[in-house]
Amino acid sequence: MQYSSNVKDAAEVIKKGGLIVCPTEGVYGISCNMEDHDAIDRLINLKKRDIGKGLIVVDSVLSRVINLLDARHISVQSYALMMKMWPGPHTFVVPVKKGYSNRAIRIDNTLALRVTAFKTMMELCDSSGCPLISTSANLSGNPASADLSNIDKEILEGVDLVLNLPCGGQREPTSIYDIVTDTLIRKGPNWRE
Hints:
The chain contains 5 helices and 10 strands. The chain has a single domain, classed as DHBP synthase. The protein is globular and about 45 Å long. It is of the alpha/beta class. Strands 1-8-2-3-7-4-6-5-9-10 form a 10-stranded mixed β-sheet, with helices on both faces. The chain starts with a strand and ends in a 7-residue tail after the last strand. Helix 1 (7-15) crosses helix 4. Helix content is 24%, strand content 23%.
């Protein structure tokens, strides 16, 4: 595992199928290419996470992921809410098209998706050229942290690169809104309906 403060170094690791620890809006996360199933399996094993819970996918633009979504099950009101909140620190649980297979998808055929406004994450997505998995850099059940010195040693040793840049300063986790059930699962900062 190596440290770098260069986003392009981290993007190269992702392009080669690697895992990185990187800053997010509030805490450090683990990221990899959303379409790299081997990398996702490695991430799940590293975190000791239940795959049925799915994983959050982050991108800097909606256009890279819009074709995965099942628009028939997204109401006009839900779409308008997403457009009002994105880009920003808000994750939406959205339905995906039948037949689309990905390890990040939840057991109910939905995907937790965020279009980020956090500059470092935007640059990482753009430099990698793909949507990224973004899950907290902790062993499942342990606390997440905005301080690299508090990250589990097992996590740091299990990734290929640590992007040594600061988190976005957000003190609360991002909002999570399930548009299928019309439920606010977690209210984060700046949530406004």
